[in-house]
Known about the structure:
The structure holds two protein chains of two kinds.
Chain A: H1 3-18, H2 24-48, E1 55-63, E2 68-74, H3 76-94, H4 103-122, H5 126-135, H6 137-147, H7 152-180, H8 188-193, H9 198-215, H10 224-231, H11 234-259, E3 266-271, E4 274-276, H12 277-297, H13 302-323, H14 326-358, H15 363-367, H16 371-374, H17 376-390, H18 396-411, H19 413-437, H20 442-446, H21 462-480, H22 483-493, H23 496-502
Helix pairs in contact in A: 1-2, 1-4, 2-3, 2-4, 3-4, 3-11, 3-14, 3-21, 3-22, 4-5, 4-6, 4-11, 5-7, 6-7, 7-9, 7-10, 9-11, 10-11, 10-13, 11-13, 11-14, 12-13, 12-19, 13-14, 13-18, 13-19, 14-17, 14-18, 14-21, 14-22, 17-19, 17-21, 18-19, 18-21
Chain B: H1 3-12, H2 14-32, H3 39-63, E1 68-70, E2 75-77, H4 79-102, H5 108-126, H6 131-149, H7 156-187, H8 192-202, H9 206-222, H10 231-238, H11 241-248, H12 250-267, H13 273-295, H14 301-321, H15 323-356, H16 367-370, H17 372-386, H18 392-406, H19 413-440, H20 456-473, H21 476-488
Helix pairs in contact in B: 2-3, 2-5, 3-4, 3-5, 4-5, 4-11, 4-12, 4-15, 4-21, 5-6, 5-12, 6-7, 7-8, 7-9, 7-10, 8-12, 9-12, 9-13, 10-11, 10-14, 11-15, 12-15, 13-14, 13-19, 14-15, 14-18, 14-19, 15-17, 15-18, 15-20, 15-21, 17-19, 17-20, 18-20
Amino acid sequence: MLAWTIYFSFAAALALGCLPERRAAAARRLALLAALAGLAAAVAGALRVAPGTVAVLADAAWIPSLGIRYQLAADGLSVTLALLTGLAGVAGVLFSWNIERRTPEFFALYFALLGGVYGVFLSQDLFLLFVFYEIAIIPKYFLIAIWGSTRREYGAMKLALYSFAGSALVFAGMLILYVAAGARTMNLPELAAVDFPRGLQLWVFPLVFAGFGVLAGLWPFHTWAPTGHVAAPTAASMLLAGVVMKLGAYGCLRVAMGLMPLGLADWASPVLGLASWRELFALLAVAGIVYGALAALVQGDFKFVIGYSSVSHMGFVLLGLMTLQITGLSGAALQMFSHGIIAGLLFAVVGRMIYDRAHTRDLGALAGLQLGAALPFAAVSFTLAAAAAMGLPGFSGFVAELQVLVGAWRASPVLAVATGFGILAGVAYSIRVLQRAFFPGPAERAGNPPPAAPLVPAPITAPERLGAVLLITVSVAVGLFPQLLLRWIVPALHAPWFERLLQGGRL
Amino acid sequence: MNGAAYLELLGQVAPETVMVLTVLAVLAADALALRELSGPYRKLLLALIGSAGCLVAAGWLAGFPADANWLEGVFVSDALARGVKIGLLALTAATLLLAVETGPAEHPGEYAALVLLAALGMLFLVSSEDLLMIFVSLELTSLCLYALAGFDKACPRSAEAGLKYFLVGGVSAAFTLYGFSLLYGVSGGLRLEEVAAALRQSGGQPVFILALALAAIGFAFKVAAVPLQFWAPDVYQGAPAPSAALIASGSKVAGFFVFARILSAGFADTAIHREMVLLLALLAGASMILGNLAALVQSSVRRLLAYSAIAHAGYLLLGILAVPRAGLAALMYYALTYALAALGAFGVVALVERHTGGSSMTDFDGLRRRSPLLSLAMLVFMLSLAGIPPLAGFFGKFYVFATVLQTSGLGGLPLALVILALALSAVSLYYYLLVLKRIYVQPASPLASKPIPLSLSGALVLVLALLVVLLGCLPELLLRPLASGAAIH
């Protein structure tokens, strides 16, 4: 059933690509239908995957002479992320209801991207995974370059080149592992069972991890993320922050760490006070958390704030991975899901509800517009989303970040304290934008006189309300009942594949 | 050799014979019957006769496969050579059909005949393991291609392209011949096997290195690899579009095949293996770097394709490193799929040129609106050249790089080259995306906004795009025949 998510998406992309340009309304309906079908397939398929098992969804010979198979399978991690993709897909369509230019093409690219994402999460064959991973790159470029806003062509090209450079690193790592394993198989569990020499793992691991890390917003390779998110149309930023960055994190966990657990072991001798790649990447993750939060604190453009906050939140995922503990790892997986939902909502509010109406994202200008009164629904949505992003209890972000922090504390108290500082900065930037954009006091308004005619925005439409309610509900549901997802995630991390990882070196 | 043997030989070279007859038929038909017809019909009929000849020859190759080795290597036929020949014939037929709309206006009969003769040279080139025969076939192909490059007499750029191609080609052919003569002088034989045997006995005399390096110059010219790449941008830009397409596709495939054959027979497991590998690695690395970096700043799509061709020659040279192992199949998969994409891209360029008047980047502005199907085809070709899955170019890269990494005894060299190639292919995405940006993002200029009607060439381009997608999704279709051929080889 889960495999249908991929087929639905690509079929929708094909059908939408064939629609003539003027059939915008039909394209929207078809897109919503396809996204719902994808979500339904993801939910129905997820329910059939018993926790702790791996469900094989498809298995056929593809390139037999090279041992490459068309193999799809789902464990708890795949299920969680496929559900996220389904939800983000539906929400993205709802928030793109106002795309009027080249509508069928927009949705065709959107679904090509979505299909690639589903494919990565469900691939059991490294070659297939990589194929889907790269399929996702090109639609992103066009979505941003054609329908984007601020410096769209620059942002789109930067994003495409960063992604492709990252995937070139992954490509190199994949080739090396394939050849080192005898060039017989690309099957992920089989490759994971191969004992690659420690020396090989130690230098291929950082290659692959950094390659996937580029897409996960690993500091200092994160710079594509703010510019790309800002330039992208709303639905594309939602997908970018919501699921595409997760592709990177998923690849880091499944491929880099899953296949090369010894790459995390200590080096022969410490370099610059660091003893292993694990310490280095943990440090970079914390740097990302703190840097992203501090950068978000000083942005004047509303969307840049959210863009940098994504870098910060993805730092939690990478830090969770580097704890090599079940608490930290499951926190990372949960954070992937949670951030996917929350970032989607934040971008939807900023890009769709506000920017499409006020035509500015400048926090100073927004302060003069009285948005809190003019768009109460947007204000409420953003307040809830910001609360979730800060990690207030009751929202999904809280459970996820708490687990990551606990894992990090067990591994290294120093890093945990630094992370705590990042969380504080996170609270600060969230409250800052909340106040500036929606509830400005006299101080903020002083320098920004209200426009001559008060802004009378178009009311929030039904699709927007639906999308926001969907995302908030999911975030709250997971926040209150994390077991909903953890019941899949935790057993999946106890699979033999990851067991070896949990026994990796200490930080 | 008695009469019966000659009859048998005629059976073996039937495809080549068919091609000769087709050349004559094209010339005769044009001279006797088609002069009176109006331009388009005359060209169409000529192209149909020519492609029919290619089809018969290819059909013969597929239908009556028979291994042969005549006169000790003068004419060799095996599964791999037959597969490559079928590919070459398909590329030739596509070139002929493309020329109906976009070829030079005058002398279509001679034009078609020259294309067919060039193809004939390529067929013989693929089938010979004899130095003299290789040289003669090489020259047959090259001379036809020189004429094809300069065929458009009304266009000074075409004349310049022809002259440049001819001068560089002539010099490099002289180098090759000199290299061959040295090989003959030292080994006393013309057959590749004899040369290789002498090489093994000699234990690596420097004169062998010199001879092979000189011979390699000729092939570097043929495939547009550094240091003999500088003709490519001018020729690709100035030559009539179908000529450029043939130079970029068929000529390259044949060149790489025979290059790989000489090198795999010539220096595998010999004392000078290491030196030759270093030489090749140097050429490959330099071609990849120069091609990819120079392509970044081009404003003409034809020149961009030329530099991209140089870069791809680099990737393919990398594949030659792996040839002594089972790398020949990987190399030929890459070369054939590259040829499909390059031919298709030239087809699109030719059609845009015809309807817009130029082939600079700006002429592609808003092509999406003028011809959605051509734009889609160009998207496929560009992304395949960039190596994006699930297109053929991606799988070709994967297969070639994987075989290169499996070559042993060269230390870290293969790995370093593969990493260089991957890094540069990330660079290459930039310029391919620039073309696509023109097509899909930029609005059409008001001067050229008329839709481009779908024509025979347009349909042909679409078929090529479909093939690129199909071979990328199901590489086994091409891989199985090639791999079985390479295994026998």
